[in-house]
Amino acid sequence: MKIMLMALAAFGVSATGALAHGQDHSDHAGHAAPAAAGSIEGTGVVKKIDAKAGSVTIAHDPIKALNWPAMTMPFKVSDKAMLSQLKTGAKVRFDLKGQTITAIRPQ
Q: Number of folded domains in the chain?
């Protein structure tokens, strides 16, 4: 009987903790969902093109949807053919899925 009460007490604490956790963060549910569900748009300037690696380095503006400040970083591209349309110094708009550029166009 004592073991059963201990098990029920442990379950009660677990369930209460889970409920409290859900309540504490219920207003945050879905913050990351839009970013994961679709693509995110960014803007920036092409700094380097590496066709062999299939990447482009962009000095991008802040990307609010990802909480990223402005910075310069390399991105993989989903299709290396996109790189042939780019020139160093060009201002571009790009779509990201994860950290991969899926579309890029002049700004």
A: 2
> Computed from CA positions of residues 73, 79, 82, 83, in that sequence, does the dihedral angle turn out positive or negative?
positive
- 12-52 pLDDT, tens digit per residue, is 443 434 333 343 333 323 333 344 457 899 999 999 999 99
d(CA 89, CA 87): 6
| Domain limits for position 21 | 1-30
Q: β-pairing, 100-106 with 71-77?
A: parallel
CB 44 within 8 A of CB 60: yes
Beta-bridged to residue 86, according to DSSP, are none
This prediction's pTM: 0.65
> What would the DSSP string read from start to end of 33-100?
HHHHHS-EEEEEEEEEEETTTTEEEEEEPPBGGGTBPSEEEEEEES-GGGGGG--TT-EEEEEEETTE
